[in-house]
Every structure is written in structure tokens, then in C-alpha cells.
Amino acid sequence: MATPISPARSGPSSRARGTPANRRYELDWMRALVVLGLIPIHAAVIFSSTADVFIKNAQTSKTMALLGVFAGTWGMPLLFLVAGASAYFALNRRTGGQYVKERAQRLLVPFIFATLLIIPLQVYAIVVSDPTLVRAFGLPIHDPAFASSYWAFYVEYLRGYVYFLTHFSPELAIVFWGHLWFIPRLFAYALLTLPLFFWFKSDPGQRLITALGRLMRYPGAIYLLALPLIITEMLTRATHVNQLTAGWPLYDDWVQFVFFLIYYIYGYLVYAVSTMPAAIMRHGWVSLALGVAGFALALTQSDTLTTSPFSYSLGYIAGAPIRGLVSLFWVVAVFSFAFHVLTFTNGLLRYLKEAAFPIYVLHLPIVTMVGMEVIRLDLPLLVKFVLIIVVALALTLGIFELIVRRFRVTRVLFGLKSRPAEPVPGLSVPSWLDRWAPQAPQASGGGDRYA
User: pTM higher than 0.90, yes or no?
Assistant: First the structure.
């Protein structure tokens, strides 16, 4: 077993870990807040000056593009890091077989359901607005009138999905998987890292964990974690440019695959290495300052953070150290804040903890369809932006509350337990949050969630 975190080192966020009676509430908060943040981020893309979505407002904004670049710097890395941390707790209480079975049930079932019944709604809305977009992806079209009705389209969609599965390409993954690329990747990480995580529990693995624990006591040692990120980007992108081929699409970028895999492993180590939480907490403010400065520096350098992922250059490769460092700075800063502040639970967290994954699955189709209607209105850009966020958030939460959360079949299809867990008494929360805490949380460890 991995060495437990010492309360003296880890501050107020530490409780006995790996036991059913305790959760790491900071993980629940970060997961929920990042997922909720995807709604304004994806709404902003509709107004950004970058060509990265199928619908655009007539008036665009560089500020909106900057918002997307900033969130992309640390948002998804943080989500994968939280997922790796959840794997640590899950493997403290499950065998390898139980772990894989649980991940399959909570990831693959929702993924298959959503790509067959939810993503088609988003694609159909886009196709109706511009049928030529589908032809741009090179899909074989069997019915030229596929856009005449939803059912005609859906038959064509299923044919296209079969073609995609037998002729896999990242471009077609954008059509048939959309934002759900996160789910199969997370499942792949769970399988790929399982031998490594079990090795960490062996005697040689524990010696490495102990050595990392000693290293993390030194000031600034936490930033050594950026080296694998930097090396990964420099090696893979340099190889790619030397091949003189066109840029890989974002959704199947091997650089991104390895980059996020490293963060997933780091998430496991945050709790496996006894001194890691304390190291993160000590470097919070420094990381925030370095993250602000690094991001500002990156924006002054061409091809560093703002270059389209569809074209790489030698300048883009040279920016890899900046990107790797800035990403880690912000992740450490946010995690430090969570360790210091987000160590409590309340009614809001208990609700969002369950809602996070369904919100992730539902939000982008809703944002897209709401956005398509809102951009037609004669309103200022900022008003449209806020309107999309408010309406999309209300619809997403409404569907979760009225449909997903209340029925056994929909709970399973969205990766939730078939029945809500029973609450347990005795939870203490900050007094000013009492109104959010009518009940105590369920007895559950931090690894009960998949992402």
C-alpha cells in the first residue's frame, strides 16, 4: 500500500485516506467546477476568432479566443489529473478485475449510448444549417436527401458510424465522437496504467515512491514534473515536423494523448507520494505568479499557445518548454487552492458530484443547438454569450434533474449508480454553508468516481 499522507504535512485537506468513511472533497469540487466551466468555454468558442467549431457568430472576438486558449492550458490537464487521483483511491479497495469492470460500466456504456443517441442530435442540427459540412469530411453518402428529415439523417449517420469504425480517422472522430473523445481516452488510460499502478504497490515501486517523497521536500522540486511534459512535446512534434506532413487534428494528436497520460499518472502520485500534497500547497502562490507571467510571455511569442493545432512549425516546437511549464504552473496553483479551501462538503457538492459526468455528456450538444438559435438574434455579442450560457446551463441541469437522475435506466446509461447512495449522519460543514447541507454525504472513498 502507498504511504499515507501525513496530516501535519498536508494541512486541512488531509483526512485518513483510502477508507470508505472519507472522501477527498477537493477532487469532487475540481471535477465539478471544471465540467461546469466547459459550458462558458464552449459558448465562447462560438464567438472566438479561431476556426475550430462548425457554428460561428457573425461578429467574433479575440478575447473569446483568448479565454479558450487559457482554459485549454490547464482545464483538461486538471481533469485528467483528478481522474488519476480517483484511480488511486479506487485501486486501494478493488482488484484489477473489479476496477476494469467498473470503468467499463461507467465509461463505455454512456459513451456508446451518447454517440448513438445524443451526438446525432448535435450533428443533425449542424447538418441542417449547412449540409456541405458532412461532405467535407469525405464520408460516403448513400442518401443525397439525408438532411430532409431526422430519420433519413439518422440512417445515414449509422452508416457513417460503421464506416468510421472501419476507417478510423481523427477527422471523423470529430463528427461521431465530438467532445466525448475524453471518455475512450480515459478508459484507455485506465487500462494502460493498471500494471504501472500495481507496480507502484510492489517493493520496488514503493522505493520509487519513497524517493519521490524525499525529492518533493525540496523547494521547487514540484516543477521537475514539467520535464516529461516538455520532452514529450518536443520529441513528438519535432519528429512530426521532420516528416513534412500536414498537422494532426487535435482530437487524435499523439502529443496530446501522451501529455494527458502523464497528468493521469501524476494524479495517482499526488496521493501515493506522502509529501506531494504539502509540496503543492507550499508552491500555490508562486505557481500562480509564474502561471500568469508564463501565459503572458507565451502570448507574446508566435506559435506558442495560440497557433492552430492543425499546423505545427519549428517555432511551435520551440515553445514546448513554455507550454509545459505554464500548464503545470496553473495546475499546481489550482490544486493548491483546492487543498487549502475546497476541503468541505455540502448539498451543492453532493448534487454536482453526481451531476458532473452527465453534464459533461449533455452540455456541448445543448450549447451548440442553443447557440445556433441565439446567434441569429440581433443582440450585442456579450449579451448573446451570456444568454447561451444561462439557457444551456438551465437546460442541461433540467435534463439531468428531470430525466437522468430520476430513472434507473437513465442513471445507468449516464454512468451513475442505479440507485443513489444513502446519506450518513454526523457531517460537519462551515456554518455559512449550512443552507446547502441538509444531509450528510454518502460514505464513499474518493475513488468512486471515474473522472
Answer: no
